[in-house]
Amino acid sequence: MNMDIALRPAPVAATTAAPLLEVEDLAVRYVSGGTARRVVDGVSFSVAPGEVLALVGESGSGKTTTAQAVLGLLPPNGRIERGAIRLDGTDISRWPERRLAALRGARISLIPQDPTTSLNPVRTIGAQIAEIFEIHGERDRGRIRARVLELLRRVGLEPAEMRARQYPHQLSGGMRQRVLIAIAVALRPGLIVADEPTSALDVTVQRRILDLIDELRREEGTSVLLVTHDLGVAIDRADRVVVLRNGTVQEAGPVRQVLAAPRSAYARQLLRDAPSLATPRVRPPLPEAASIALRVEGLTHAYPVTGEPGRVFRAVDGVGFEVRAGTTHALVGESGSGKTTTARCIAGFLRPTAGRVLVGETDVARLSGEALRQFRRQVQLVFQNPFASLDPRQTIAAIVEEPLRNFDPIPRAERERQVRSIIERVGLPDSVLGRPPAALSGGQRQRVAIARALVLRPRILVLDEAVSALDVTAQARILELLDELQRDLGLTYVFVSHDLAVVRLIADTVSVLRNGRVVEAGAAERVFHAPESDYARELIAAIPGNTQGARMVAA
Amino acid sequence: MSGANATAGFAPPRTLVLPPVGLLLAWTVIALVLSWAVVPGLFAWHDPLQGVAGEQLLPPSLEHPLGTDGLGRDMLARVVYGARESLLGALLAVGVGLTLGTALGLLAGARGGIADAAVMRLVDTLLAIPSLLLSLSVIILLGFGSINAAIAVGFVSVAHFARLSRAEVLRVRRTEYVEAAFGSGGRFLAVLWRHVLPNALTSVLALAALQFGSAILALSTLGFLGYGAPPPTPEWGLLIAEGRDFLATAWWLSCAPGVVVLLVVLSAERISRSLGARRT
Amino acid sequence: MRRYLLQRLGQALLVLLAAYTVAFVLLQALPGDAVLIKFLGSEMGLTADQIAELRIAYGADAPVWEQYLHTLGRFLAGEFGYSIRAGVPVASLLAENIRPTLVLAGLALAAASLLAVALAVLSQLGFGWVRAVVRSMPPFFVAVPVFWLGIMLIQVFSFQLGLISVIAPEPWEELVLPVLTLAVPISAPLAQLLIRNLDAILNEPFVAVARAKGATHAWVLWRHAARNALPPTLTMAGVLFGELLGGAVVTETVFGLGGLGGLTQQAVANQDVAVLQAIVVLSAAAFVAISLAMDLLLPLIDPRLATRPAGAA
User: Fold this and answer.
1) Which member of B117, B228, B247, C279 has the lowest number of beta carbons within 10 Å of its beta carbon?
2) pTM of the model
3) CATH (one of 1.10.3720.10, 1.10.10.10, 2.60.40.10, 1.10.10.60) for B75-279
4) What CA–CA distance (Å, rounded) separates C237 from C124?
5) At CA A404, angle to CA A402 and CA A408, rounded to 5?
6) If interface means Cβ-Cβ distance under 8 Å, which residues of chain B face chain A?
């Protein structure tokens, strides 16, 4: 940890040098449909030259709005109500668009959130990097071209000449983010606003991108305003953090101080709930005697490659594992690893090309029609996105009741009783019963989805990224709920996730997937502490906040 | 966008927001025209068919707010009584398009496979023929007349309804909540009835409102060309055609029915937009 | 790519054949036998035998499927039969009338495109109330009855203002109002689509990135949005063509111009089935050809489509 801090510019700089960026008592308001909402309310902070400041918060905290205000790029219905944004001592918060435009790119630049949509799909990479020079008045084509190639090489995109001619869709997400970084550093700005720069990327890519940003800003002594929902990322990469909630500052200070002695209750809760910082709960030892609830053997799912007759793509390729009753087995992997396909085969949503999925004596892979429908009482799937998996036109009561209506007729009063009891069981007040999903928060919706899955009293619950769309605190509550339900009802979980930090909190056993194959499997404790495969090692090392964070909290 | 959008997912503060003025006006126009069709006597005090000799081509006055035509008939009465012809025709046209088109679209979207391919090729074909030519062809087959014109206009809209309802069914079928419904043991028809239909029909309804306006426009065009209701029936398109002969001397004759058609079609479009916006 | 081309071409031919079939079923196969309609009640006083002879001459007595193939064969050979009313080949009628309609439609399309682009640009760059007004224009344009607009334009420009002579207009004078009449309703769907596309594109993250580079609104509009908004507009070309043709029927009737529109109007009034059939099939062919051309043009503008796998349609 000491070594890590030493690599950064001395933190002293943060306190003595005149700040590069100073935000003072900022308030921003959105007007939509005749109603006004203040989303940033009295936020103040400053960024010293060469410093990395992280704005941390959950959705709705106002962190992105704050960053947009700094760039002068609020959406059309957003308005700075009061406060100052000083860049090198000059308040730019009231500047007209033309003056701000001259500033952007040259002195403040942006690394955006989602690299897949942040480049113009119909223009080449080279043209999009060159554009920033053209906008700022460079006319010499030869000079621009030389700079573009130099930048491409600098961010590790080789061969630069070829990359310059390519279109965005020909590059991977990580490569596109490198292009966006090249644009952000092109004119050597004093401040880079990095708005969730790696949230859309896989962990291993995330780590390399964050390393690149670190390296470039250190070379030039650039300051970075890092906006993130991930406390782990903030701890790894920032000198100081500002914690936001509902548009106000909850906590601010040097990383070490906030980690070691958070003053606000909210910061303490965030630290407790952040999966990468939380101490894994001690799970009871695996019950050796417990029966096997689920056995997957040689599972393969292949489909023909479009346009290339005869070639098939194996999304899942010979995956096998077993799960004991009452335990949690996690399927971990990055995008394209085949984890979701596997989960869908287990839940009977996809028919595998080969292999067996045994629940008790039944092979799910052979079921169809009415037999498959009956089987669904035993295995239920919880989807990733609670905003999409609930019918917007139904009430919560109707959603939870529906599975009961699909099987043996139960009297209405009895159905209602069961719905009430399961809603209470997942920790929701029964006042939600008459409401539509839109009136609920993300965490509440996921509870409804879990209630719907449990109302049939299944034995196995397949959770497909079931907490990934949720904020840290909501995520922690759902994980607690799942844990509780498992103990009380003896449920068996198949937990699919890309997030190793979350998996570590809930899994008894783990299969690490890559390109449709299991590269490592075993008890969770063993896999996390002594990974055998290179890939698993890399994945675990890439968990943000993993190294110093956990240790500091423990200390 | 965490500040701007993510919070939108949570319960919005319940405030009374006034409906937009344009939408209110649109409903007012439709309500007014509907009441013309139902109780024309309340709005016009002259006979729409019987002219008064010696009162030809009078300019607008208190007695004849929209003047009189070449046969001495009160223009206001003809416009008001014309509402019935136009609205009934448009309703019939939308009815034909909605039932036939939605049935085809549902079939294609829900069954897929050959049914889908067949329906979609039919839709492609109907869309490939310019709509006016297609309705003229139908009229040649059925003969002139207001009902036949309405059927012809409705026939043209079948393709639009079929395409939209198919797309909507496919969209809804791909949603996770439909998957979840199957996952909790739902049978095909139950899921179709509980989830797919209600969620797909909203935008079909919006299209119906839009097509209602288009139908009025198309019917008045056919009426203008002389293929709709025969004279002396008051029909808006026909009124405009009749007024054309007196363009130099009595401009108001063509002007008034045209403005009415314009306002009704505009209102239908506005209402359709408000229905569509409430989707999701 | 080549497989995609062939597939797309096959699809186009299929639609064309189906369009011919629809036209055949509506106009030739179903009861309204054109020869009977024309001569039975007419004052020519033909006997039943003479009518039967005529029917043989027109091929109306053959079984339906034979007529179907026979007519199809003639169409493929570029022969469209005889106009029952005028007694001249349909092909020569079409040839006579196509030029004025092409001129009218071409000018109207150009005017409509200009109008649509102007509206779209103003909808993004104008001041608050200008934007609101501009955005309410397209629905307004859609709702205007074309024939009524033509009449009102004549009323205002010829009778009230006396700017354009109705008695003996110059050739250009004769075209100004018809072009305007036709352009207004055509511009509406174009403008609507452009505005919707621009709105969507300007909300894309890559526009935020461009602005973060220091680009102004106008720069973003020209350098990014314009090019991205174009492809979806092209896919509308076929539909616009249909609208133009339908609009030409009405416009030519209102202004008493000769052309395909006037020809169509006469054909319907006289139940001249052969003429209408030829016009329907030809316009469907044009629609299919235009749509096909646009589909092939799109990959040149949007590189993502160039790598489209062959199987995707």
Assistant:
1) B117
2) 0.81
3) 1.10.3720.10
4) 23
5) 135
6) 1-4, 6-7, 9-13, 15, 17-18, 175-181, 183-187, 190, 194-195, 198-199, 280
